[in-house]
Design goal:
single chain, alpha/beta, Rossmann fold, OB fold (Dihydrolipoamide Acetyltransferase, E2P), five-stranded antiparallel beta sheet, elongated, CheY-like_superfamily, DNA binding
């Protein structure tokens, strides 16, 4: 039997998830408690041992990541929950961890639980990878490290207009007209830039949303940036992009 705790500050979301767990998974998961704050969660985890944590990404003024950074020893698996298709989801996916979008879908919950049972402790390394990456972002601040043959250049993220993938290389286009090429894939930089207002509009393009000047309609459409660059938008990314930009 998997011992679990639900950390969620929205009553309706907590009750929905609790109902599904008690209805569909009572033979495999024992829900020990529901708490609604980082403080309550830390106090509970000091006293009780759990196998699985259902963790809301946003907990009032704090985040689930802040909670994990304060836990003395992470020896449990985590399924994140969130109401938003935001940067946190990209980071979680990048680390190969599981998450549920709210309102929680019954079938998606079933798949997540099955994954937990199958993988047992295997996700702990992925969780450590996620926390290290987020910690690195905090230490670096609003700059990104771009390695080259002669050293590492630290560029303020607001100076970046867009990033373009080129097989195993990434081209950075800056506001001052410079172009910097780095021998790493775009995916490796995406997780660092998404928290700072960047959006992947296409497999090959990650753009700074603050530099968008115009949207041209079309199947997916295209964005015109402040430097005049016209970047195609993949049709599958159009809906989410329009939501973020504030237009249907």
């Amino acid at each position: 039997m998997i011992k679990a705790i639900l950390i969620e500050d929205e009553k309706g979301s907590a009750e929905r998830l609790q109902f599904f767990l008690e209805t569909d998974h009572k033979d495999s998961i024992e829900l020990l408690a529901w708490v609604d704050s980082v403080h309550q969660a830390l106090e509970f985890l000091k006293k009780k041992s759990v196998d699985l944590v259902f963790l809301d990404v946003e907990l009032g003024a704090q985040t689930g990541f802040e909670l994990l950074n304060q836990v003395e020893k992470i020896d449990f698996q985590v399924i994140f929950t969130t109401a938003h298709q935001e940067y946190a989801i990209q980071a979680i996916k990048h680390a190969a961890l599981d998450y549920l979008l709210k309102p929680v879908d019954r079938q998606e919950l079933k798949q997540a639980v099955e994954k937990v049972i199958k993988e047992k402790g295997r996700s702990l390394d992925s969780l450590e990878k996620l926390l290290k990456q987020l910690h690195f972002q905090d230490k670096l601040g609003h700059k990104i490290a771009l390695p080259s043959l002669v050293g590492i250049e630290y560029i303020p993220v607001q100076e970046i207009l867009r990033c373009q993938a080129d097989v195993n290389y990434t081209h950075f286009f800056l506001k001052n007209g410079r172009k910097i090429t780095v021998s790493k894939t775009l995916k490796e930089f995406e997780i660092q830039l998404l928290p700072h207002g960047f959006f992947r509009v296409h497999n090959s393009h990650l753009i700074n949303l603050a530099e968008v000047k115009f949207y041209q309609k079309g199947k997916g459409g295209a964005l015109v940036l402040s430097d005049g660059a016209e970047i195609e938008v993949a049709s599958r990314r159009k809906e989410e992009l329009m939501q973020i930009l504030g237009s249907g």
